[in-house]
Design a protein that fits this description.
There is one protein chain. The protein is globular, with a radius of gyration of 20 Å. The protein is built from 13 helices and no strands. Helix 1 runs antiparallel to helix 4, helix 2 packs across helix 3 and helix 3 packs across helix 8. Helices cover 80% and strands 0% of the residues.
Amino acid sequence: MNRKSFAIYASAIIAMIFWSYSFIWYKEVFVFYKPITLVLFRLVISSVFLFILTISLRRLNPLNKSDVKRFLLLAFFEPFLYFIGESFGVSLIPSSLAAVIVATIPLFSPIGAYYFHNERISKMNFLGIVVSILGVGIVIFHKGFGEIDANPLGVALMFVAVVAALCYAVVIKKMTTKYSVFSIITYQNSFGIIYFIPLFFIFEFDHFKTVAITWDVMIPLLKLGIFSSTFAFIFFTFSIKHLGISKASIFTNTIPVLTAILAWIYLGEDLSYIKVVGIIVVIGGLILSQFHPRMITSAFNRSNDED
């Protein structure tokens, strides 16, 4: 594996780590603020940070007027629709279950990639997806299906986030040919604020005024804004640009696995041997999904040549 390939895969993994942490940080902020307030402040922090970063590094591409509608559409799917589904969903159901619903994204992403970008998925890639999803199921349902007791509305909202993520991936693929990754994330988060401001003042401003701003709430908000809403999207967009939608999206299968590990570390939740088996299966499926039959044939031929 050369340096570029390593950077591409490392970017996808880092993005998943930051998004996995977001499920922990969500719970910390929900002690103080409601979902819309959380997301609005998360985006404000991210946008301010991104503008400072991109201008300092001279990585901010000028915004073409003809692309404003596309960025508004991009921001509608993510962060707006995605975060509405995710933030309200996580507030109603366990973090681990929310994470496994997010992990269904790779199951559906090849459909959008095929119809809108003519991306093909090989049998090996599909097998990797199936194996990885099986591993996710082992991690989440290790105590049996009867142990899952979730709010139906919370589950439905999480699937709204899944649909939004799929639409987002389709739209952003076209944008990566015209704008740098830094520029795309800067503009999408900034446009996203526009959608949330009216909802904030209509539904949650009165509650916001009753909560004192302390470091207990600001620290997880800063983490969400800088790591989950900024660097995670930058790294993931970079991986989409080079891997394509289907291969990049399969990495989201690691989110419930990483969330289970983080919950064990930070929340003291049990990490049984069955969960460990599930983690190994997910990783195996992830590796399998990145292979192409020609890669295996090439490796086999090299082996024969060496003999």
